[in-house]
Design goal:
The protein folds into 3 domains: 10-68 and 204-233, 2-Layer Sandwich (Pseudouridine synthase), CATH 3.30.2350; 71-202, Pseudouridine synthase; 238-293, Archaeosine Trna-guanine Transglycosylase, Chain: A, domain 4. It is 20% helix and 36% strand. It has 7 helices and 18 strands. The protein is globular.
Length: 296
């Protein structure tokens, strides 16, 4: 494999291990592939493991569409304490002798399904007046974090023990699982903090698509590139239209073309020519206008 910068275009669905930041994981892949253009869809806390989709080259143009997709998490809450980070890596700030029964937990789950409001953890990447919340928290300061509306599609118990309980959660973007655990613990009167967190799905990508850092390195050094998924694999939920070579030329020049079917205004479509993605477009009043053009 050439040591110069490699023009990779596509997605790597990394299985991030617990104990490193998302930025550290991205840096490792960047060094391995000698790829200068790489981004990721959705940050994972250092404690968390699981699905971290990495976009390379032209795939970086699809990251914003990926971010809107649903996510699924498996997580464990340890009862009886709160920590300043809302997970076990932080300092204990409060404790309780109370432990919830399985029935008590089950009875409150419905309160966390649907559109709910939650306050992000102090140790989060939220910016207020130009400051990251986690930077302020590390200095011993507290920023006033406003409650935000998020959507939880499903929440269920997968394993119950007196001291800790495991759950699976299916949710929309912006949902903080650490806040979910903290708020459930407070409602139950026993306090709670995340002790294990794993992301199981991001949009159409699941654990079946994931590859570890170790296996990625081995495959790369053997010039086995099956770990690289196509650019359009992140766009399974988006309408795709096939266009002619002449239309593809117009789109690549930034020109609009006539829509081949009737769809509501502002619909996002992927246009392809000979099964190769040409551009992300929006449809308005019967015209297809390029928004992101791919160089593939």
């Amino acid at each position: 494999m050439s040591k110069q910068s490699n023009p990779f275009n596509g997605w790597i669905i990394l299985d991030k291990p617990s104990g490193i930041t998302s930025a550290h994981a991205v840096a490792k892949v960047k060094r391995l592939l000698k790829s200068s253009k790489i981004g990721h869809a959705g940050t994972l806390d250092p404690l968390a493991s699981g699905i971290l989709p990495l976009a390379l080259g032209e795939a970086t143009k699809t990251v914003s569409y990926m971010m809107d997709g649903r996510k699924s998490y498996g997580f464990t809450v340890t009862w009886g304490e709160e920590r300043d980070t809302d997970d076990v890596q932080g300092a204990v700030t409060a404790t309780s002798d109370k432990r919830p029964s399985q029935e008590e937990i089950h009875n409150i789950l419905q309160d966390y399904i649907g559109k709910i409001r939650q306050i992000p953890p102090d140790y989060s990447a939220i910016k207020i007046d130009g400051q990251r919340s986690y930077d302020a928290a590390r200095r011993g300061e507290t920023l006033e974090l406003a409650a935000r509306e998020v959507e939880v599609h499903a929440l269920a118990i997968t394993d119950y023990h007196t001291e800790k309980t495991s759950f699976i959660c299916d949710c929309g973007k912006g949902t903080y699982i650490r806040s979910l655990a903290r708020d459930m613990g407070r409602q139950l009167g026993c306090l709670g903090t995340i002790s294990q967190l794993r992301r199981l799905r991001v949009a159409s990508f699941t654990e079946t698509h994931a590859i570890s850092l170790e296996l990625l390195e081995k495959m790369f050094h053997k010039s086995e590139l099956s770990f690289l998924r196509p650019v359009e694999s992140a766009l399974d939920d988006i309408l795709a239209w096939d266009i002619s070579p002449d239309q593809a030329i117009s789109i690549k020049r930034g020109q609009s073309i006539i829509a081949t079917a009737s769809v509501p205004d502002n619909t996002v479509v992927l246009v392809r020519c000979d099964n190769i993605p040409v551009a992300m477009c929006t449809v308005s009043q019967g015209s297809v206008k390029p928004v992101r053009v791919f160089n593939l």
